[in-house]
Amino acid sequence: xxxxxxxxxxxxxxxxxxxxxxxxxxxxxxxxxxxxxxxxxxxxxxxxxxxxxxxxxxxxxxxxxxxxxxxxxxxxxxxxxxxxxxxxxxxxxxxxxxxxxxxxxxxxxxxxxxxxxxxxxxxxxxxxxxxxxxxxxxxxxxxxxxxxxxxxxxxxxxxxxxxxxxxxxxxxxxxxxxxxxxxxxxxxxxxxxxxxxxxxxxxxxxxxxxxxxxxxxxxxxxxxxxxxxxxxxxxxxxxxxxxxxxxxxxxxxxxxxxxxxxxxxxxxxxxxxxxxxxxxxxxx
Length: 284
Prior knowledge:
This protein is an alpha/beta fold. It contains 12 helices and 9 strands. The protein is globular and about 65 Å long.
């Protein structure tokens, strides 16, 4: 299959490489350019419009504004091949996902929201978890591509916005887990308990799970090298806050966690891993 790929950051380039390894013809474009040897066998195209001449296009751009500029304002959709399916894998707002669906429908272009759970190392291993929303026939058409980049596809509904609501809610829960670990360490450390001992207690009894285990280990080691940048985590918590308005419910844990992350970002931690909110709490 001919696959366009727009957005070759750490996540995007890993995904594009796995699609190429699976035998698909990749037509790739990135705003800041890409080295000739970064995607062996791929064709690096000169514009996003060229990428949209493929059968399927994946975009992995950072936020609503980047997608609006690169895909809508550039006229890339106007160059789309008839029958093309556009798969947006980034974490974007629920409202913008609905707007994108309308733009694509007016042009007769298929649209699937497919944000992913997984850090760059998970993307490199082809083990992402893919959250899909869109027409069932479109999802089935691109499922072989999903299988090249991920270990499982979770279909959340026929409306693309359902995938985005699930992703922002999931990221909110991860951030809350990081905040919970940090607050637990704050209490126990104040009473002489080694953080490693406390994290081991929690992850081997009541809180076994990847979020607690992975981020607990980072907090214990003080390793805040970015896998997912704090500034992007803050963006996602803002998306969750916007999405929460539809529930009509107060979400105080979301508010508290977002405020903590905003404070850490203001303190210059935006390029560190989002688990650095623990460093901000424990050491500032």
